[in-house]
Amino acid sequence: MNWICRRDFLKLAGAGGAFLITCRSGVSFAAGGESVRFIQISDTHIGFSDPAINPEYATTLKKAVAAINAMEAQPDFVVFTGDLTHTTDDPVERKKRLVEFKNIVDGLRVKDVRFLPGEHDAALDKGEAYQEVLGPMHYAFTRNGVAFLAVDNVSDPSGSVGDAQREWMGQELKKLSTTDPIVILTHRPLFDLAPDWDWATRDGAQVMELLTAHQNVTVLYGHIHQVHHHETGRIGHHAAAGMMYPLPAPMSVPKKGPIPWDPAAPYKGLGYREARQSAGAGVPALTEIPMA
User: Fold this and answer.
1) In this structure, what DSSP letter does residue 280 have?
2) With contact defined as beta carbons under 8 Å apart, do 226 and 251 qualify?
3) What is the DSSP-derived secondary structure letter of residue 243?
4) Which terminus of the chain has a lower count of CB atoms within 10 Å, N or C?
5) Range of the domain at 284
6) CA distance 222 to 239
7) Tally of CA atoms within 13 A in the half-sphere of 92 that contains its CB
């Protein structure tokens, strides 16, 4: 079953131009009724400092925060899907970068702000500094009739979710009906997008097996620094653009690496997204908001 996407150009307050991508796979987005609207931001990489890749590295996230604050209608919440900071071997510097990130996002008008770790944040110390500054690495919550599960697939250096967390997911899913809308928030893709590039989750197939009985599941993730849409069965997987630098398309070059800054097109490939999910099930409407 193929995704059918409609792309329109919108003007959002404080955010410049935005592309609305509404994807459906045989199920219509439910109109009316209760719904939740939220912003997904990914791969902010605070601590990165290469001006050839992003000369605006010190202000890019701050500009995104200002743009979201300028939205006339504020979202229900904002979620950051990992790699909040850039990796460092120094534990003192790691915590310093996490605190710097937290201080920036504390400037959001929206006070319901959720976080997930990326491997840059949590792989080297199994999330010790991350948890000290930002809290739990996996959790569940419900907003306006939509169930959200934040899944950690980075603090295990092998890139696995792990037995204990899969058991937790199973228990959370038992609380839901098979028709409830579910949004899985994670950092790495749960399917094998490009395992040679670390664009996969080692036990992703086992995680997906837990979700097969549920009819309305969407996975939102980051890690690959580009918008990407994929479907496994009836589950849609949607990667968000990064906020610090873009990466090449999966396996399109011999060696993965950041795409250099284009002075003729500042912020090209960088952005975040708005998502709207109805409690009446269906798939979410996704609005890609470029920083350019």
Assistant:
1) T
2) no
3) S
4) N
5) 4-290
6) 5
7) 0
Residue entry with tokens 């928030």? 185
* Encoded amino acid at 250, one letter: P
Alpha helices in 159-246 (DSSP H): 163-174, 204-211
Which 8-state DSSP code applies to residue 83? -
Amino acid present at 78: V
How many residues appear in the chain? Answer: 292
What token pair was written down for 184?
């899985």
Number of domains present in the structure of the chain? 1
**Model-level pTM?**
0.90
Q: What's the alpha-carbon Rg for the chain, to the nearest Å?
A: 18
What is the CATH classification number for the domain harbouring 120?
3.60.21.10
Dihedral pair phi/psi, residue 93, rounded to 5° = -65, -35
Partners of 79 in beta bridges: 40, 114
What is the pLDDT tens value at each position of the chain, 292 positions in all? Answer: 333 343 333 333 333 344 344 443 333 333 345 799 999 999 999 999 999 999 999 999 999 999 999 999 999 999 999 999 999 999 999 999 999 999 999 999 999 999 999 999 999 999 999 999 999 999 999 999 999 999 999 999 899 999 999 999 999 999 999 999 999 999 999 999 999 999 999 999 999 999 999 999 999 999 999 999 999 999 999 999 999 999 999 999 999 999 999 999 999 999 999 999 988 877 899 999 999 8
Q: Tell me how far the alpha carbon of residue 67 is from its chain's centroid.
A: 18
First to last CA, the chain: 33
